[in-house]
Hints:
The protein is mainly alpha-helical. It is about 80% helix and about 0% strand. The protein is built from 5 helices and no strands. Helix 1 (about 1-15) packs across helix 4 (about 70-115), helix 2 (about 15-35) crosses helix 3 (about 45-55) and helix 2 runs antiparallel to helix 4 (about 70-115).
Amino acid sequence: MRKIRLFMTVVKRCHADKITIGLLICFFLVSLIIMLVEPHINNYGDAMWYTFVSATTIGFGDVIVTTTLSRLLTVLITLFALVWTAVFSGVVVTIYLEVIERTEKETVTQFMDKLEHLSELDKSELEELENRVKEVRKKY
């Protein structure tokens, strides 16, 4: 649950929620317009299929558009989807880095706490602490 909250916080902070909602609205609207203006796309499902294939840059070629408006909308939805993909990738990387930073901060806090209470540690905890210090020295 904590990771989901972190994910949603980062998504909102990066405004990816607004971009995602915008992409979905644009997707359904472009599908509707393409269905209305294209002579050989007869139903909304086919229009959505074409829009999905275009937005994901798969481009099967089983459905093609012929009108200028549909071609322009295809370019716009494809560009919008590419921008969304870039933003979403950035959000995932940001979350990953925040998780690593939090983990390191917690580890350092625990390490410092043990250092402050050396006299209270038993022999096995002291050996564990010594091994950690050796690992840190190897890294740096």
